[in-house]
Fold:
Amino acid sequence: MRRVSVVALYLSFAIASVLAQGQPAPAPSAGPRPAQAPLGANQWQIDPNHSSAGFSVRHNVVSTVRGKLGPISGIIEYDGKNISSVKAEVSVDVKGVNTQNERRDADLRGDGFFDAANHPALTFKSKRVEPGTGGHFKLIGDLSIRGNSREVALDVEGPAPTVKSPRGVLTGATATTKISRKEFGMLWNNLIESLPVVGDEVSITIDLELNRPALPGQP
Structure:
């Protein structure tokens, strides 16, 4: 009986080994996702779900084409009181450009305009603030598009009064500016550029909703 038991045990191990051959190895555990760095006391995160970047440009002199860019991300510094404390570092996805015309959008993503394959985002990094009146101020900084950087002035309305919500504390602002697309290397081709098909001046509007955790002693 003991010999039969040993043989049976051996056979069970052999069968299990055969069945296991060819089976995929178990996937390694993904492990915990890296924690996002906490915001500083005066830092606000851009909410991409409630923020947008739009633009408009003249077409054939007689009409205006309007479009939207992709999601916005970044951090804004603001102490909640002093406009001079505002600092911004913003990134806007250009791969999601949308003018409600697929062929035109493909042209805009191409190397004649945004060159989204090599430069998938435009960025803005502020350098200084020029206070204004009536809830407006200018935010001066470097705008980079397809690897070309120029200093621009954003006309900012806001920040709006803070509001408490289940997500923490919210505020918002709207920024506008005008740029020369040619200064940023957004050239179509020599033949078309010799005609007033697409205007050089581009108007940009950015609407931001900002949030941060509610902190003791802060508004």
Notes: The longest strand covers residues 198-212.
